[in-house]
Amino acid sequence: MNHHGLQIQWAARYEYKRGDRLEPHQHRFFQLIYFVDGSGSFTLDQQAIPISPGVFFLIAPGVTHGFAPQGGRASRTLDLKFNLYDEELLEAALGCAGSFTDDDGQIKPLLEKIRSEGDGKQPYYQAISALMLSQLIYQLARKRSLAEPEPDAVSAAEQDVALTYEPQEAAQRLAAYIEAHFPQDISLNDAAYEIGYSNSYLGRVFRASYGMTFSQYLRQVRVKQAQKLILGTSGSLKTIAWQVGFKTIYHFTRVFKEVECMSPGEWRQREQAGIRKDIYFD
């Protein structure tokens, strides 16, 4: 059934282990494939694109695509298949179709909500899911259009590059420091000393670049690494909490709930139960 100019056909989580392969193919509907974890090479219209967590694809009808996983870790995806009927929405989707990176972490939770609606099938689930998906498509179309500046804007950006490079570099160096030292007991003061900036300046430019504070980014990195260990190892939650930098299981559970809105145990159960479970929206 068509709701708000679109029809979601199907949603699923998939896991591609070593030896698995998604052979190049095409179909008559739109597909959105989000890589939650893993690595490999995704082929989109004869172009090979390397995969990492947070990379996703909006694939238009008739476009050939395939995936070959690499490395020892399984590659996990969130998938949606849908049709578009509204002319404006269709034009937006066709205009922005291609590869994206979930830089601000907003796409994965939205896809999980759509999938959850289809799984629960509560009243109006199709309409609610359609509204969320149309919002996602318009956000991608906006992102694509803003990434294509006018010629004047390009020249202005070139003139201002000296003014903007240093703060961006400082923020990137702080992010790299967090990702390298997250298991340790680190602070913004520690990072500022190691990188060579004042903590007030570093905190300010990091928030401007990443939209979050040092502490928020550190928590996000620790939870993301914990999720990889939860699915990829048989370690206890207490051991995993310690490995990613939490001193107690209680602190780990509290932070995990704040980020994922469920406990680590509930998240593990949901992820394991949802692999290769196809959810239909009709």
Tell me what the structure shows.
- The protein is 52% helix and 22% strand.
- It contains 10 helices and 10 strands.
- It has helices spanning 87-96, 107-120, 125-146, 151-181, 188-195, 199-210, 214-232, 237-243, 249-260, 264-274, and strands at 6-16, 22-25, 30-37, 39-44, 47-51, 55-59, 65-70, 75-84, 98-101, 279-280.
- The strands form 2 sheets. The protein has a 6-stranded antiparallel beta sheet. Strands 2-7-4-5 form a 4-stranded antiparallel beta sheet, with no helix packed on it.
- It is globular and about 55 Å long.
Question: What topology does this entry show?
Answer:
Elements: E1 6-16, E2 22-25, E3 30-37, E4 39-44, E5 47-51, E6 55-59, E7 65-70, E8 75-84, H1 87-96, E9 98-101, H2 107-120, H3 125-146, H4 151-181, H5 188-195, H6 199-210, H7 214-232, H8 237-243, H9 249-260, H10 264-274, E10 279-280
Antiparallel strand pairs: 1-8, 1-10, 2-7, 3-6, 3-8, 4-5, 4-7, 6-9
Helix pairs in contact: 1-3, 2-3, 4-6, 4-7
The name of the CATH topology of the largest domain is Jelly Rolls
Average pLDDT metric: 86
Please state the structural category.
alpha+beta
Question: In terms of per-residue confidence, which ranges show pLDDT below 50 for 5 or more consecutive residues?
Answer: 153-164
CATH superfamily of the largest domain: Regulatory protein AraC
Main sheet summary = 6 strands, antiparallel
Residue share in β-strands: 15-25%
Shape: globular
The total beta strand count reads 10
Radius of gyration, taken over Cα atoms and rounded to an integer in Å: 21 Å
Q: What is the second-level CATH architecture of the largest domain?
A: Sandwich
Helicity, as a percent range: 40-55%
* Name of the CATH first level of the largest domain: Mainly Beta
